[in-house]
Specification:
The complex is a heterodimer of chains A (347) and B (321). Chain A is α/β, with parallel strands linked by helices. Chain A is 40% helix and 19% strand. Chain B has one domain (5-311): ABC transporter involved in vitamin B12 uptake, BtuC (Orthogonal Bundle), CATH 1.10.3470. Classes of the chains: A alpha/beta (347), B mainly alpha (321).
Chain lengths: 347, 321
């Protein structure tokens, strides 16, 4: 064991890597200067700011003298803005780009150009669907599990008699939300969910007002609606507020993926009795460790590479089972929130 | 060279702005003057500036076309849809261009032959054409185009220049000749200044207007296809909101929103000012709302300044006499 560690340390010192296939635990060496860009879907969303906090924490631990720029587009200009930021970062020759992709495959040419220039592209929160132009995707939770968690919450809220529910998602091309919804639809085929009827899916584009209006439109469209499931932190707050404002919370509940601090009052007043999420701080932290490790050459974007990500422990790069191509690091796990624990988590 | 003095002054101002921005950018970032960056600077906004050229003619003519971005979206969705139901790509592209021309003709018909205001007609177009685009592709993203098509949008064609940039340069020259050196160009100005007078002096105003809107639709469709090739995939919200950026470029170029005045030199300079400003801020890691507000502030200033100046000037004159 000691020998392996020594060898790994030696390999890292020479900028080389442990032999392919060896499951040696790589210790990422701190102190190398790497300029990095953290690119959220857009600015002004609490969870992305939390990811930034996590990345800053990792940057401090790794004593990176390089810059960490937190750059993002405005919501109205998300696709063109993300492409512009990736292109400019490529011109500047940064070491790594960490991106929550909101552009579907449209980011691919820009990401490929970055990659061709030797820039490491790590996606987090939302990957590039084709896997092209991307080194590795840091997945928050297993996408299949997300589907099950949502199906379970729906069942627990609507009860064994079931009923009609609808999904309020982010943008139609957000690959993470789409994968979660697909996973939920698969989960719903199990007999225990037989009485849950998914009536439709609408998109609020992760904008509060649009999501609020879409939630109200669902109420008008489906007279027997019992639940709105929103797998987005923007959508779930907007939907809960809409139901509260219209005094519909007795009839229609809201659930999905939410941030405890934003959901506190709605969980307390019963509009959103249950929801789930993972830690975005940890996601930013792990993404930073991954990107830094790749950019300094300590780890390679290959299945089987494992490394120690500071306080979060050991992680291994694997093939991404949710996409045709692409590599993944799975963070996990889920935290479920209800009136018993939401207050503590909101602090 | 018969431009009024006021206009010449406006272009001097734009040129000065451009020089300041370029100097600041060069001082701030060592990457600014790189060939790759200059190409990217154009490439990132190339579709908008292509459409801005025809928009210049439309606005000088006293009209407006709010549907350009929706036609960009429509054309790219038509091409993507037809390709995915099995049409050969070249045919799908031709059909997409035709859809743009048709949309433009539809706009032009109501404006020129029925006499409805272009603001209302093209606002309807903005909503309607986007609707058709969204019906075609639904909530999906269509990719997987032939490699040659993606290469057209992403690979250099001549030297470091991409096809889109070549098209822009050629089109700029062509539009300049048409607007400033042809009989048609003179009509565009005359109609923009005084439509009734133009009509009474025997100008075929209907035909000119229809032609302009068909050109606007076709060029927008072309820009939409170039955008699709650059991104390598298409979805229903392609180019959404671009019309405002496009109109803004034209107005900053000194073209009067009331028609009749302005020229392509101003619009060319305005394009360079906005693109260099955006690029410089991007390289200085200024993004998001900060970037939007800086550009917004510049526009408010530049659109207000000449009007206020003229108002003061008129008042002053009035006092003298």
């Amino acid at each position: 064991m000691r020998k392996t560690l020594l060898m790994t340390a030696a390999a890292v010192m020479f900028g080389m890597l442990a032999p392919h296939g060896a499951r040696a635990q790589t210790i990422i060496e701190p102190g190398k200067p790497v300029d990095m860009v953290l690119l959220p879907k857009f600015l002004g969303i609490a969870v992305f700011d939390q990811a930034h906090k996590g990345a800053e924490e990792a940057a401090k631990e790794l004593k990176n003298q390089g810059k960490l720029e937190y750059l993002g587009p405005t919501p109205e200009n998300s696709v063109a803005g993300q492409i512009e930021i990736v292109t400019n970062a490529t011109t500047q020759g940064v070491g790594a780009i960490m991106m929550s992709n909101n552009s579907g495959d449209q980011i691919e040419p820009a990401a490929k150009a970055a990659h061709a220039k030797g820039i490491k592209v790590v996606t987090w929160d939302s990957p590039i669907p084709s896997g092209q132009g991307e080194d590795v995707f840091v997945a928050q939770v297993d996408f299949t599990e997300t589907g099950k968690v949502m199906a379970d919450m729906a069942l627990s809220i609507m009860g064994p008699s079931g009923g009609t529910f609808a999904v309020l998602s982010a943008s139609p091309d957000a690959s993470n939300q789409n994968a979660w919804i697909a996973a939920m639809q698969t989960a719903l085929k199990e007999p225990k969910y037989a009485k849950l009827k998914l009536a439709g899916i609408v998109y609020g584009n992760d904008q509060s007002e649009a999501s609020y209006n879409q939630a109200l439109a669902l109420v008008d469209k489906y007279k027997d609606l019992k639940l709105i499931m929103a797998p987005t932190t923007v959508g779930i707050v907007a939907a809960a507020k809409a139901m509260q404002d219209e005094k519909l919370c007795d009839k229609i509940k809201v659930s999905g993926l939410g941030l405890p601090s934003e959901m506190l009052s709605y969980t307390k007043n019963g509009c959103a009795p249950e929801f789930a999420l993972w830690s975005f701080v940890d996601l930013g932290y792990l993404s930073y460790y991954t990107a830094y490790g790749l950019a300094t050459g300590a780890i390679k974007a290959e299945a089987g590479q494992s490394f120690k990500a500071g306080r979060m422990g050991d992680y291994t790069i694997t093939k991404d089972p949710t996409r045709k191509e692409g590599l993944r690091i799975l963070m996990g796990p889920f935290s479920k929130y209800d009136s018993s624990n939401v207050e503590a988590a909101a602090k | 060279m018969t431009l009024p003095v006021g206009l010449r002054r406006w272009e001097t101002l734009l040129l000065a702005m451009l020089a300041v921005i370029a100097c600041l950018n060069a001082a701030d970032s060592p990457f600014y003057l790189g060939v790759g960056n200059i190409v990217n600077l154009f490439q990132l906004e190339i579709e908008k500036i292509i459409v801005a050229l025809i928009m210049t003619l439309i606005i000088i003519n006293g009209e407006i076309d709010l549907s350009v971005a929706s036609i960009m979206g429509l054309a790219s969705c038509v091409a993507a849809y037809l390709f995915h139901v099995g049409w050969p790509m070249p045919l799908a592209l031709l059909a997409a261009l035709a859809s743009g021309a048709l949309a433009g003709a539809f706009n032009g018909f109501w404006v020129a032959y029925v006499g409805l205001p272009s603001l209302a007609v093209t606002l309807a177009g903005l909503i309607g054409y986007r609707g058709i685009a969204r019906i075609l592709v639904e909530d999906r993203a269509y990719g997987g185009f032939p490699d040659w098509f993606n290469a057209l949008g992403q690979q250099p064609l001549i030297g470091p220049l991409t096809l889109s940039i070549v098209i822009f340069v050629v089109m700029f020259a062509a539009m300049a000749v048409i607007l400033h050196g042809s009989a048609l160009g003179r009509l565009v100005y005359v109609m923009g200044n005084n439509l009734a007078a133009a009509r009474y002096s025997g100008v075929r105003v209907k035909r000119v207007k229809l032609l302009l809107f068909v050109a606007s639709g076709t060029i927008s469709a072309l820009a939409g296809l170039l955008y699709a090739a650059r991104l390598g995939s298409v979805r229903g919200d392609m180019a959404m909101g671009f019309e405002l950026d496009i109109i803004t470029i034209v107005l900053l170029g000194g073209v009067s929103i009331f028609g009749g005045s302005g020229n392509l030199v101003g619009v060319g300079l305005s394009i360079l000012v906005i693109l260099n400003l955006r690029n410089g801020m991007g390289l200085a890691d200024i993004t998001g709302n900060t970037q939007t507000s800086v550009i917004g502030a510049l526009l408010i200033l530049s659109v207000l300044a000449p009007n206020v100046a003229q108002m003061l000037h008129t008042k002053w004159k009035g006092r003298e006499t």
